[in-house]
Amino acid sequence: MNFHRRQLLRVSAAGLAGSVLAPRVFAQGRFPERPVTLVVPQPPGGDADVVCRLLQTKMQEVLGHPVIIDNRAGAAGNIGAAYGLKAPADGYTVTFVNQGILAFNPVLYSATGFSLANLLPVVWLTSTDLVLCAKPGVATSLSELLAMARKQPGKFTYGSAGNGSANHIATKMLEVMAKVELTHVPYKGGSPAIVDTLGGVLDTVMAFPLGALPHIKSGKLVPLATTGAKRSQALPQVPTVAESGVPGYDFSSWFGLAVPKGTPREIVERLNAAANTALREPATIERLRAGLTEPVGGTPAAFAELITRETARWAPLIKQYGIRLD
Question: Where in 99-139 does DSSP place strands (E)?
Fold first, then answer.
């Protein structure tokens, strides 16, 4: 068993053990006693930022102190994740994490700035299908785009939230399975990629729905296909990638919260409870589901199991796709 695999298997066991063995801090007072910072490794307006701001109000109501969002974009989330996961293990710095940061980046980068072994999962927030969109006039369906791309390899561009992001891997997976060549244009977040597609700089963008749906509804973006196994209730008229001539394609992304290893168990449980309460808000559920995003919630252990399962799944696939970023 190689070192990387051993490290992945320690995410749940070592992380949770670290929280159990950590000193009990509640003798000094009930957590929190001051504002909590939520590090979001994406720029304002991106999908991660939107989800965190949806949860922010209820979380700070439950915690009794402000939750301050600190956007730290760059390096496909590595910059923000490294900053947040190296903070003191006291619960006052919580970090947004996702599939790209935890399952892709350790394979794509020789150095991410953080270690999975030093991460303690707090909660699985959401699961999301992506939607491939085009600027008007490029194509009206994914099958049409793929047919043109096969005749003109590399002509059509697509934007993503950065090298190694879920958007990037989802589109690379499409290229490999559909046997086409598109030109990748990485950005420091999903929102700028959408903006440049709206402005005509890009032909297409693999987008998280929360950011793309307003522009789809206004007619400024043309939805070509969604990435999940079945059609979205929010976009029932839009076929899946699998229905569009790429059988077997199925991609969904996930979001969560984490803290540094060593954070006391009681604090992790308090943060977990606050996030779960926010995810159960009817208005939040409605807003998320309207954006093809399913609220999940649950225990820290359930999120740890997801991380281990997903990292084991994606490591060989990324190597198969031949993606390397440094």
Answer: 119-129, 131-134
Distance CA 250, CA 246 (A): 10
* 317-322: long-range contacts, CB 8 A cutoff, minimum separation 24: 317/173, 318/104, 318/107, 318/108, 318/169, 319/107, 320/176, 321/169, 321/172, 321/173, 321/176
Handedness of CA 254, 260, 261, 263 (dihedral sign): negative
Assess if residue 35 is contained within a domain.
yes
Shared domain for 118 and 149, answered yes or no, is no
- Half-sphere exposure at residue 292, Cβ-oriented, CA atoms within 13 angstroms: 31
* Strand 119-129 with 131-134, pairing: unpaired
Domain containing 169 equals 131-244
Contacts of 270 (CB under 8 A, 6+ apart): 31, 32, 63, 91
Tell me what the mean pLDDT of segment 76-105 comes to: 95
Q: Are strands 119-129 and 252-260 parallel, antiparallel or unpaired?
A: antiparallel
Q: How many domains does the chain have?
A: 2
Specify the pTM. Answer: 0.81
Dihedral, 24, 37, 117, 299 alpha carbons, nearest 10: 70
Burial 62-96 (b: 16+ CB within 10 A, else e): bbebebebebbbebbbbbbbbbbbebebbbbbbbb
β-sheet bridge partners, residue 123:
257
326 belongs to a structural domain: no
φ, ψ (nearest 5 deg) of residue 187? -125, 170
Instruction: Pick 44 or 243 by higher pLDDT.
Output: 243
The mean pLDDT value for 86-101 works out to 96
Burial class of residue 177 (count of CB atoms within 10 Å of its CB; 0-12, 13-18, 19+)? middle
Q: Say yes or no to pLDDT of 265 above 60.
A: yes
